[in-house]
Amino acid sequence: MGNQPKLHNSGRAKRLELLFEKLLWRFRLVAMLPVVMSLVSTLVTFILGTKSIFRSLMALQSLEAIGDQGHSFEAELLAGIVSGIDLYLIGIALLIFGYGIYELLISSIDAAREANGGASNGLLDIRDLDQLKEKLVKVLVVALIVTAFKYMLTLKVDDGQSLLLFCTSVLVLALSGYLISGNRHHKDHS
After folding, report:
1. Within a 10 A sphere around the Cβ of 101, how many other Cβ atoms?
2. Which percentage of the chain shows pLDDT scores above 70?
């Protein structure tokens, strides 16, 4: 009879523990907020990218109507198009983030697996936090390369120092591209 209260307290503690674990498990659903906001942000960046490219195309249309404005105008038009591409890349990074957070914390996306015949591969295949980080870094580095390219389009090379800066920038961009793809080639040969 002396063991009765101990068993009762043990059962009560176990029920409290199970209740807390259920609440803790459901709390992961708070991750829906960054998922939804990253999807909304993806849509916004895609709209802004489209607007930037469309604006450049409209400026090109007006250029044809008024005649040639020179190399700097062409560089600005191209910079507008590259800005749009950069915004698309940022949108893709946001999409990967939202998809990855959903897959890691909420649930696997069955529709994605069904669309690929049960196989899951590609940019949106995210199994763990390291894969999410790796994919985000790759897309963000490409976005930074595109941004640097945009600024290089309008860089005036009129002396030796600016030429050296330009060549160094090209070398750094090439090295960045190599490092991103070099990791993949290394994995393919392993």
Report:
1. 19
2. 81
Residue 173 is which amino acid? L
Q: Which of 95, 108, 103 is nearest to 140 (CA)?
A: 95
Residue 61 CA to residue 101 CA, distance in Å, equals: 42
Structure tokens at 149: 């390219």
- Its domain, for residue 127, covers 12-154
Average pLDDT of the segment spanning 26-55: 94
Q: How many distinct structural domains can be found in the chain?
A: 1
47 domain-assigned: yes
Predicted TM-score (pTM) of this structure: 0.74
* Distance from the first to the final alpha carbon of the chain: 66
Residue 64 inside a domain? The answer is yes
- How does pLDDT run across 71-106, given as a tens digit for each residue? 667 777 888 899 999 999 999 999 999 999 998 888
Domain-located, residue 93: yes
